[in-house]
Write a structure and sequence with these properties.
Radius of gyration: 33 Å
Largest sheet: 3 strands, antiparallel
Number of strands: 3
Oligomer: single chain
Strand content: under 5%
Structural class: mainly alpha
Number of helices: 15
Strand order of the largest sheet: 1-3-2
Length: 304
């Protein structure tokens, strides 16, 4: 303390009193966060007790991760600690999510023994921002459904859920699934397959057909076909023809065969599996035996 009765402190004395380095205090002072109260006759910076208290607040704010710009705004009353803290919480949450994705990507790479090229691709796809990931999903939905107004709304809703976004805290398995899913839904060939499936779904829907009818039909198909499989009914038998009549009514077997062929595509099945993994739910049953039986029975009826 300068021995002139003013109680003012030199920068060195302020450093010793607070445990901070002269260099740090000088930097904060030059930046405007801790302006000196005055200067000595020799031009040296001088500080008072209020400066020491201000310095402790600066140190606390800096330890909490605030930049000097935000520190100055708090000290001048331009904003409050609470507002700045809330903004930093949001920023930290984004950083944490990013770090979780990075950790999951690295875990996947370590488990799979991925090449540098695979790791680069995985990291690129997994680290896409939420907005960019949603854009990929929206582009996929738009291309698949564009102009097909008669499609079952329930199918649209389920497909949007299936085109899952990566969760905030993904497991390595979810990263793996998201990377494959993102590649799949951006593939022009797969988009064409999905659009064809939606076109087939919409072709026989009149304006009065209730939402969810397509799923009701598939559920009924699985139930009737499962019973036929359990009872050993041959797909080309007369009894199988009766099962089909119960299932289809007077619908055209050729059209239903086309519809089922679209719905049971191998890549569509893989899409459902990947979506379930990303969403953290059990993968749906493919009902291969049931669909296979109905397809075989339909082919027997449409042959020749």
């Amino acid at each position: 303390m300068i021995d002139d009765g003013t109680g003012l402190l030199t920068i060195g004395e302020l450093a010793r009193a607070t445990g901070l380095s002269v260099r740090t205090i000088r930097y904060w002072s030059d930046d405007g966060a801790l302006p000196p109260v005055t200067r000595s006759a020799g031009g040296y910076r001088l500080y008072d007790a209020g400066s020491a208290a201000r310095l402790e607040l600066i140190r606390t704010l800096r330890e909490l991760g605030l930049g000097l710009h935000d520190v100055r705004r708090v000290l001048t009353g331009e904003t409050t600690v609470a507002r700045v803290a809330a903004a930093h919480v949001t920023a930290l949450d984004a950083q944490i999510r990013s770090l979780r994705v990075t950790r999951a990507v690295l875990s996947t790479v370590a488990r799979r023994g991925s090449t540098a090229e695979e790791m680069t691709l995985m990291n690129k796809l997994a680290r896409l921002s939420t907005a960019e990931r949603r854009r990929i999903i929206e582009d996929f939905m738009a291309e698949v459904f564009d102009g097909i107004d008669a499609a079952d709304p329930d199918i649209r809703q389920r497909l949007r859920f299936a085109a899952a976004d990566l969760p905030d805290d993904p497991t390595p398995e979810q990263v793996d699934a998201w990377v494959e899913l993102a590649e799949l839904i951006q593939d022009p060939g797969f988009r064409a397959t999905m659009r064809r499936m939606i076109e087939v779904n919409a072709a026989d829907r009149g304006p009065d057909v209730p939402s969810g009818s397509s799923l009701w039909f598939m559920s009924r198909l699985v139930r009737l076909a499962a019973q036929a499989v359990r009872e050993g009914v041959a797909p080309d038998s007369a009894r199988a023809a009766g099962v089909l009549r119960e299932l289809l009514g007077d619908a055209d077997p050729s059209f239903v065969l086309e519809r089922l062929s679209a719905a049971t595509n191998v890549r569509v099945a893989r899409y459902r599996e990947l979506s379930a993994l990303v969403n953290g739910v059990e993968p749906p049953s493919s009902h291969e035996a049931e669909f296979g039986w109905v397809v075989a029975a339909l082919r027997a009826r449409t042959a020749g």
